[in-house]
Design a protein that fits this description.
The structure is a single chain. The protein is mainly α and 171 residues long. It is 75% helix and 0% strand. The protein contains 8 helices and no strands. It is globular. About 4% of the residues have low confidence.
Length: 171
């Protein structure tokens, strides 16, 4: 498979997860799309350097994580946090539908707002865990040990539960 095909396959397979990862770093929809494009470009540029030392999926998330951190570092921390909290107040998907779809949408929105309200470190861990990455894969993406992932993830889940309680319970 040539580089173009490999890149297209990565975006087909991981595109939705990469969009969600971008959303964990940027609440503003316009800036989030810019970040997603930056992530895609960074993956394209980094792909020739992929040596197979980790899984391709881990490699892609590592690139996305690094690009997200770079994106966040370019913004003033107080403005970035305020933008995250402002965006958390907005309803993500107001479309009407059957009661079960509406209820599921409300639970997703509560979870999204709660995750966005967390500091960056627990938000990173939770986002990767919600994407289905193993502790080992998260450790590779973030450059920490698996034990550290377990500790951070446990703390992040506890903080998330505490954040969700005033919002009406668990997602």
């Amino acid at each position: 498979m040539d580089l173009d095909e490999r890149y297209r396959e990565i975006l087909r397979r991981e595109g939705a997860a990469l969009r969600r990862t971008a959303a964990a770093y940027e609440a503003d929809p316009g800036r989030r799309e810019d970040l997603f494009q930056e992530i895609c470009l960074a993956i394209w540029q980094a792909l020739p350097r992929f040596r197979g030392e980790a899984s391709e999926r881990t490699f892609v998330f590592r690139v996305a994580h690094n690009r997200g951190l770079s994106h966040r570092s370019r913004r003033r921390p107080d403005r970035a946090r305020a933008a995250d909290l402002d965006a958390a107040e907005q309803v993500a998907d107001p479309r009407p539908g059957p009661d079960s779809l509406a209820e599921a949408g409300q639970r997703r929105e509560r979870l999204r707002r709660a995750v966005l309200s967390l500091p960056l470190e627990p938000r990173q861990i939770l986002t990767l865990a919600l994407e289905g990455l193993s502790h080992k894969e998260i450790a590779e993406v973030l450059g920490i040990t698996e034990n550290h992932v377990a500790v951070r993830l446990s703390r992040a889940r506890r903080t998330l539960c505490q954040t969700l309680e005033p919002m009406g319970g668990t997602p």
